[in-house]
Design a protein that fits this description.
By secondary structure, the chain is mainly alpha-helical. It has one domain: Four Helix Bundle (Hemerythrin (Met), subunit A) (Up-down Bundle), CATH 1.20.120. The chain contains five helices and no strands. The chain has helices spanning about 5-15, 35-45, 60-70, 100-115, 130-150. The mean pLDDT is about 95.
Amino acid sequence: MKSLLNASDRDEILRRLSAIGATSQGRWGKMTAAEMVCHLDDALRVSMGEKYARPIGNWVSRTVVKWCALWVPTHWPHGFPTVAACDARREGTKPSAMEDDLRGLRESFERFTRRPREYALQAHPIFGAMNEWEWMRWGYLHIDHHLRQFGA
């Protein structure tokens, strides 16, 4: 299973991220490429406690949905809404210059995957408490989902 605990999976994500630019077109959803970059950065920052996202999960999302999202070997469905703190059209970070936003995302990615970890894992706003393995699996799947959204 792919996970950001694996060096080859981290390298894959970074290679694919380099294919994203201001003119990248989405295959589904409403986000622009710039909004997606900010969304990914915000989500990583939430996991590390650098940004607050109000919990919106319930028993089903913390058990059944989380288990399916992390363990079922299929791509995530399109159109699953995000939390307001990670949505650039609501309370999330607004895009600025694409290269600056990509640099910020790469820096957050590096902090998120660095070992030893320099932050305390936070609860996911939808999935609740997650251990390191779950966060690194989620990180790979979440970034993969959005890179596929933009053809990378």
